[in-house]
Model the fold of this input.
Amino acid sequence: MANYNQKARRLIADLGMGLRVDRASATLPQTTSDDLFTVYVGMVQLQIVGEVTDDIQDQANNTNLEFLPTATAGARNDLCAVLNIADDAAGTLYYIDGTAGNALKDTGTNAWLLPQTPLVMAPGTIELHCAASNTGEVAWTIWYVPLEPGAYVAAV
Done:
């Protein structure tokens, strides 16, 4: 069975963007970070996109994605620089391009782009950080390809 699962995962990865994990729409963190996804067992390559599902309040809110590795608990790493998400409407899409120094991307309601630099993650937690307390909700989706046997991603 394990051999079948490994072959199935390779086939899925070869056919498209990898395995999909959805996180239900949730309110924004209030001047803090909230866990979105956890990477388990081994390294994965991934891409992530968020969709605003309930309009975000019109007040400054510098927002970014962070990674808290399991191996060095407490040592958060920015996956991107901040983006002010004030007044973003339902349907707005967020993504990162894979370069940590670049800001979280906001495509409005247009199509999003695949990362220019592949994002490879070790075990740990992907978090959404908001600098303010805004109303609004975002649903997140990850597509990933396991790079080690047994590696997987789950929504928190």
Observations:
- The chain is about 10% helix and 45% strand.
- The CA atoms of residues 62 and 83 lie 5 Å apart.
- The longest strand covers residues 44-54.
- Helices lie at 2-15.
